[in-house]
Amino acid sequence: MTDSLRIVIVEDDVLIAMDLADLLIGMGHDVRAIARTEAEALTAAAEFQPDLMIVDGNLEDGSGVSAMREILANRFVPHFYVTGDPLQVQGLESDAIVVAKPFNLRGLSNGIMRARQTRQSHTDLRNEIV
């Protein structure tokens, strides 16, 4: 198993957020917060200083992509997107790491691994759909 990570989930669908949190906790990670809006994502990133963020690209109130742009302007946070529309996210963020909904444990694990590699190597992971 990988090291335990402090994770912030940005997801406006409560059931998906809870499922994602349960999977991550089962993998041994610490889910610090679930943000449902762009504003909540910014607050959670500042407050919890996560090791990883898992972000829905399209939020009911705001955009996960916009939230990550603002967060990354302040500090680098490994992240990936979990979305039902991977092509739309990649149209907004061409080097995004994307796990398509519906996701599974394997896709989630791959997303975590790839996001962590961006911090370690800063390799260009363009158009990765898991």
UniProtKB/TrEMBL annotation:
It comes from the Bacteria. InterPro entries: Bact_response_regulator (IPR050595), CheY-like_superfamily (IPR011006), Sig_transdc_resp-reg_receiver (IPR001789). Keywords: Phosphoprotein. The modification 4-aspartylphosphate is found at D56. Residues 6-116 form the Response regulatory domain. SMART domains: REC. Pfam families: Response_reg (PF00072). This is Response regulator. The lineage of its organism: Bacteria, Pseudomonadati, Pseudomonadota, Alphaproteobacteria, Sphingomonadales.
